[in-house]
Specification:
Blueprint: E1 11-21, E2 24-35, E3 42-43, H1 46-55, E4 92-96, E5 105-109
Antiparallel strand pairs: 1-2, 2-3, 4-5
The chain binds zinc ion (ZN).
Zinc ion binds at residues 3, 5-6, 8, 36, 38-39, 41.
């Protein structure tokens, strides 16, 4: 398959597909795609596109639960202070448990 943008032969690859529809954010990871090695244009087969439509229809749920952090550029944000890790000087980030009732952050060492 050749790139519709620059004509280069496209390669088999995987991508993350993000779309905002009806006020909801849909993110699909590890999506098989064709990628242009020159201009990075990505295209999907019809079967993959159909499945992506299903994933972003709002009528299906993922098997695992994720939280998405959605920002609008320029909007005010609330900064969360970093808690120093006593055992290491490595960077830490916060993630929330998948249990919605407990909103305690868990610390992931990077
Ligand atoms: Zn291209």
């Amino acid at each position: 398959m050749n790139c519709v943008c620059c004509g280069q032969e496209m390669i088999d690859d995987f991508t993350t597909f993000n779309v905002i529809k009806g006020g909801a954010v849909y993110i699909t990871e590890d999506v098989p795609c064709w990628r242009c090695p020159v201009c990075e244009h990505v295209t999907f087969t019809q079967d993959v596109a159909k499945q992506l439509e299903k994933y972003s229809s709002g009528r299906s749920l993922p098997g695992k639960s994720y939280k998405a952090w959605v920002y609008k550029w320029g909007d005010p944000i609330i900064e969360i202070p970093l808690i120093a890790s006593p055992s290491s000087s490595q960077d830490i980030i916060f993630a929330h448990t998948q249990n919605e009732s407990k909103d305690e952050p868990i610390v992931i060492k990077m």
